[in-house]
Amino acid sequence: METLELRTPRREALVRITPALTDLIAAKGWQDGAVVVFCPHTTAGLTVNEDADPDVATDMVMAMNRLIPREAGYRHAEGNSDAHVKTTLVGPSLTLIVSSGRLQLGTWQGVYLCEWDGPRTRKVWVQWLRG
């Protein structure tokens, strides 16, 4: 298992991790198989989404805040219940195909860490599955 570590910039942000995954795949010489990408945090998750226009990431944060407001009478005492709900909706993991040493994503797709309770230092675990 490999670990990526990154610092998120603010309380809520979609942080592009595609380059870090691409670099890791190249450095390890992984060719044909898949990577399982897992975020071991209860207030951050992972998603694949639009990677050509950075406004999409901003819009995703805005939409999540409309759906799950920060203050909504939650019972959890830490004040970050909205982050837990957002993480549950996004999910903690992805399985991504690697073919001929390249991460297989659609033309406009990228991989993102979804931070809902930052800024923090986050880990992302990556496990290679041979094809």
UniProtKB/TrEMBL annotation:
InterPro entries: UPF0047_YjbQ-like (IPR001602), YjbQ-like_sf (IPR035917)
Lineage: superkingdom: Bacteria
Signal peptide range: none
Pfam families referenced in this protein's UniProt entry, alphabetically: YjbQ (PF01894)
Annotated PROSITE patterns: UPF0047
SUPFAM superfamilies noted in UniProt: YjbQ-like
NCBIfam families: TIGR00149_YjbQ
Family per record: Belongs to the UPF0047 family.
UniProt protein name: Secondary thiamine-phosphate synthase enzyme
Provenance organism: Solidesulfovibrio magneticus (strain ATCC 700980 / DSM 13731 / RS-1) (Desulfovibrio magneticus)
